[in-house]
Amino acid sequence: MAFSSPLPVPATLQALTEHHLDQWRSALQLNELESSLPELDDEFMNALVQVLAVSDFVAEQLRRDPAMAWRLQEERLLWRSLRSGEMAELLAVALAGVESEEELLKALRRFRQTQQVRIIWRDLTRQASTQETCRDLSDMADACIDQAYRWCYQQACSSFGTPLGYSGEPQHMVILGMGKLGAQELNLSSDIDLIFAYPEAGETQGGRRSLSNQEFFIRVGQRLIKALDAPTVDGFVFRVDMRLRPYGDSGALVFSFDALEQYYQSQGRDWERYAMIKARVVGGDQVAGAELLAMLKPFVYRRYLDFTAIEALRSLKQMIQREVQRKGMQDNVKLGSGGIREIEFIGQAFQLIHGGRDRALQQRPILPVLDMLATNSYLPDSAVDELKGAYLFLRDTEHVLQAIDDRQTQMLPTDPQGQERVAWAMGYEGWGEFRQALESQRERVARHFANVIADPDEDEEDSCPSCDNLAPLWEGLLESEQAHELLAGAGFKQPESAWQRLQGLLQSGRVRAMQKLGRDRLDVFMPRLLAMASEQDDPDLALERVLPLVEAVARRSAYLLLLTENPGALRELLVLCSASPWVAEQITRYPVVLDELLNAGRLYRPPEPDELVDELRQQLLRIPEDDLEQQMETLRYFKRAHVLRVAASEIAGSLPLMKVSDYLTWIAEAILQQVLQLAWREMSLRHGVPRRTDGSPCELDFIIVGYGKVGGIELGHGSDLDLVFIHDGDPQSETNGERPIDGSKFYTRLGQRIIHILTAQTTSGALYEVDMRLRPSGNSGLLVTSLAAFARYQREEAWTWEHQALVRARVLTGCKRLGHRFDELRAEVLGRQRDEPGLRAEVGQMRQKMRDNLATAATRGGFDVSAFTADATFSLKHDAGGIVDIEFMVQYAVLAWSCRYPELLRYTDNIRILDGLRDAGLIPGEDVQRLQEAYKAYRAAAHRLALQNQPGTVSGDQFHDFRHGVIKLWQQLLPDQQADNHSA
């Protein structure tokens, strides 16, 4: 609760407490129990005083059943939390021997009264947390519903026979708990909202007369409601509300699964989606219930970012605000401004909009949902902390209000005694102090509530005053000259071209084929787009690059709604697309990543490696293991979203070149780790696991080795992956599954599966292009190689250029033990003694072949000064003095000198290898610095060009100093016959 230690009972409540104690003692005397029961200890009596100072309900129950105190003392039920399942066990004992409906009603009510006293006692004496109180109440409801249902079911079967489905299997009802019961958040006097369903149509067999399954379950449902809801001399168990079922009070009491699915697909309303978020199976057939919820999930959670829910949520929010304004509502801790309902609305609004994409939000209780809003950056941590604190405070207040008389109320008391009780129970000296704390909590909630799905037009900061001025451009109300004039006045430098683009969009087939709802959304969006584009440094460029996206999503107008509702996201889109046609093209091809623009803080803060791995793992954990299609879509979205975040950070200048490559490489590693796990699980489930040469089962004895850019931690935008697959199993022995295959075939299929997951074209494109040509024997070699065969090839058959490639090879994911053995082999092969003149000749010859095939014409035959003019072009990668020259020098140095300096083998990236060469004194520090600066400058330019969709070439008069420096060092390390032709 909101306090840590009890305050003494205030003097104003002592007389009331004594009165309750006297009544209890009188009841004991009247029932002649005092002498037959043991004396209660001081701990019990002190707690009893605290409870009776607040709760008339507990006092009344003890007066009616004075021995209850001793029964609750047994097994110390007042002093400990119930273990999981214990509530149901206690009820089963209470219902043992019940033979008639009258006995059932009596036993249920007495059980409820006893547990209600126990729960209130623990809550008021501060032994139970808010969550425990809610959980105990929900567990009590679950137990009462399920066990009462089973009793009613058996009685109905005795009369009418057993209901059977089409399959001939017995049918049970599924009871869905909605609202607070579904979320396991019941308060002390909650109603319970239920929906009844059954799996299949059919009829009963074996009874005195046959009924249809629906008729049978209607009778069971009616008896169940009576068992729980009907008032008797012992009170009631729970008030039952069935109005959330299809068609409300006018609908059937019970529906088949098919009827429910058809109803929600064809007639389900937005408020029913909102309600169904918390649906949980609370009684009946749990297995069938899980199937039902799975059937209904697509109705609740769209598989995309669902901004279509905004309009309905905004209407619901307005209804809440209107209710709050009603007289007297301010003193209601649930329905008043800043109350419990507003906190729940905040959580459920994010769930409806984002829950289809972000499965972490597909939860029922509000507190975990709020935690996920912070974890996934939908709300700031500070906002979530305030909402959680307010929720617990308000729920505690609600419990105190209801503990007084077990009455369903959330209204603050107006009488002095009631106010004193509430303030004291909440740990405050007086009503004024409590009321001040309450108002502080509610003000925080109201502030956050006001900001959720606020109308963008109401936000002054995000308002768009020029929208109305530019609306005629889209509405077709202007002649060309008027349109040109208006566009020019808005800042467009080429108004004629801008007007032509707008007209082209208007006349495009996709726009003309839009349905009314989508076209209405487009008509609202376009003036906003034009107005915000006019604010960019280059309005024409911004419009040119974003209009293809608008046309691409015309039939998926939820994206237009997303951008309309989030001006900040539209602004980020225009900035990024203006800066990079590559980004514009990626978003146009995969508009699903638009939701990444909603959170600028997250957009410009890519996560660290461990966060990436954990995020992807968590996303995949929420997908059924056998749903490969959804797993592949999740992998693709993960990659596109995070690559967009890296590009955004690079464009904003908040991420330097080396970090860009780091992040792009980390993204690939996180994906490969999960792809390997998915492929291994699929193969091992189908065939079992292969064996090692000693006969023991393999435990993912497989590694993915990265070469080239991914191995050197230098991935760029659009880079492919150079991969080699290595295993350590026995290729001859069979796997241990029901469909065994030999180890060689298993690993080959595993490799094929990995490549399929990476390269398959889905609606979200492919993950990566994969190049396997660096494996032993290239394309003619095995797809997957054993470590022994790989070692033999590297030691005996590999060419020098393959050892050069091995310099940048490293294990990306897989078996750690096998990875260590690969590292040892790599060190052995690279660290062997080599004939330096021969090595120099081979590396130089390979470099010359590459120049002849890939360099620009001016540098193929020699280093001519004409290559350094503005009339020529410079290939950053392949031309003399470029990236490949630096890479070859580094590779030569490692092959030539690591036999004496093994520390050169520690890293696979060129920058840190160069650091090692400097530290070992093999290349002078100033030369290393020159190579590193040139390498970084070239790669930075290549990255910029990639973001502009440009090839990796620049004007020949750029990077003169770097090129001369690299060529000079090349001639020192690897001199060749072309030196004579070079002129500085």
Short overview:
It catalyses: [glutamine synthetase]-O(4)-(5'-adenylyl)-L-tyrosine + phosphate = [glutamine synthetase]-L-tyrosine + ADP; [glutamine synthetase]-L-tyrosine + ATP = [glutamine synthetase]-O(4)-(5'-adenylyl)-L-tyrosine + diphosphate. This protein has 984 residues and is mostly helical.
Overall geometry? globular
The CATH architecture of the largest domain can be given as 2-Layer Sandwich
State the fourth-level CATH superfamily of the largest domain: Beta Polymerase, domain 2
Helix content: 55-70%
CATH topology of the largest domain: Beta Polymerase, domain 2
Number of domains: 5
Tell me which oligomeric state these chains represent: single chain
Q: How many strands appear in the DSSP assignment?
A: 14
Task: Walk me through the topology.
Blueprint: H1 11-30, H2 42-54, H3 56-64, H4 68-73, H5 86-95, H6 101-124, H7 130-160, E1 161-164, E2 174-177, H8 179-182, E3 192-198, E4 203-206, H9 213-229, E5 240-241, E6 254-256, H10 257-266, H11 270-276, E7 280-284, H12 286-300, H13 309-324, H14 340-354, H15 366-375, H16 381-405, H17 416-425, H18 431-451, H19 467-475, H20 480-489, H21 495-507, H22 509-512, H23 516-533, H24 539-552, H25 558-565, H26 567-579, H27 581-589, H28 600-603, H29 609-621, H30 628-652, H31 657-687, E8 702-707, H32 708-711, E9 721-727, H33 743-759, E10 770-771, E11 784-786, H34 787-796, H35 800-807, E12 810-814, H36 816-830, H37 836-854, H38 857-860, E13 873-875, H39 883-897, H40 910-919, H41 925-947, E14 953-955, H42 960-973
Parallel strand pairs: 3-5, 3-6, 9-10, 9-11
Antiparallel strand pairs: 1-4, 2-3, 2-7, 8-9, 8-12, 13-14
Helix pairs in contact: 1-2, 1-3, 5-7, 6-7, 7-9, 10-12, 13-14, 14-15, 14-18, 15-16, 16-18, 17-18, 19-23, 20-21, 21-24, 23-25, 23-26, 24-26, 24-27, 25-26, 26-27, 29-31, 30-31, 31-33, 34-36, 35-39, 37-39, 39-40, 40-41, 41-42
